[in-house]
Amino acid sequence: MPFFYYFDSYYWIILVPAMLIALLAQINVSSTFNRYSRIASRRGLTGAQAAEEVLRAHGVYGVRITRVSGKLTDHYDPKTNTIRLSDAVYGSTSIASVGVAAHEAGHAVQYAQEYGPIKLRGAIIPVCNFSSQISILLIILGFALYSRPLFAVGVVLFAVAAFFQVVTLPVEFNASRRAIQSLRDTHMLDDQELRGAKKVLGAAAMTYVAALLVSIAHLLRYILAFNSRRRD
User: Fold this and answer.
1) Strand-pair partners of 65
2) Dihedral (CA of 40, 44, 50, 53) sign
3) Whole-angstrom Cα distance, residue 86 to residue 104?
4) Where are the transmembrane segments (predicted)?
5) What would the pLDDT profile of 175-227 be if each residue is shown by its tens digit?
6) 3 exposure class (CB count in 10 Å sphere: 0-12, 13-18, 19+)
7) pTM exceeding 0.85
8) What are phi and psi of 27, to 5 degrees?
9) Which of 76, 95, 101, 118 could form an S-S bond across to 47 if both were Cys, CB 3.0 to 4.6 Å?
10) Which residues does the annotation mark as catalytic?
C-alpha cells in the first residue's frame, strides 16, 4: 500500500489522541489558573513577594525577580539567575499567582542546592537541541530512500530529544513540592488556599506529562509507519 496510507492511519490512531490529551491539559491549566486567580490570598502577598519569601526561607539570595509580558510565561532563567513572572502573577495577590511564583522560586532553589535532575537537564540541553533539529530530517530521508540505517539514526536522535522531557518531569514535580512545602512552612497560604495552589501546580505539571506523551506517540508512529512500508 502507499506510504501515505500508513502515515495517515497512524496519525489518526496514535498521534491525534495524544494531541487531544495535550490540548485538554492546556485547557485545564488555563481554566484552573483563571479560577484561582480570582481568589485573593488572605495574607495579601503578591507573586513577587511570595517568590522572595520562598528564596529567603531557603537562604537563597542574589536572585532577581522581574516582570515579563504574556500569560503563563513565568519561568526561571539560570543563565541570568532571574525569576521572570508574568503580568498576571507578578503583582497579583491571588492564590494562583502565589503558587506559580513559589514554583518558579523552587527552580531557583534547585539550582542553588545543585539538585541533580536540574543539573542533568541543563547539561543535556545542547545535545537535545541538536538531536531535535536533525532527527526529523534523517527520519524523512530514511523513509524516502528506504534506508533503515538512516531511519534508525533519526529515531535514536528523536528519542534523545524526547529524553529532555523525561528529565523535565522530576524537575517540575520537585519544584512544585518545594513550593507547596514553603508556602505551608512560611504560612503564606492556609490549608484551604494550599489546596487551590496544589490544583494550579498539578494542572501545570500535567502539561509536561502530556508533552512527553505526544513525543512518544510521534516516535511510535514513525516506527510503525516505517515497518509497515517495508512490508509493502
Assistant:
1) 83
2) negative
3) 11
4) 12-33, 123-144, 150-171, 200-224
5) 999 999 999 999 999 999 999 999 999 999 999 999 999 999 999 999 998 88
6) middle
7) yes
8) -65, -40
9) 101
10) 104
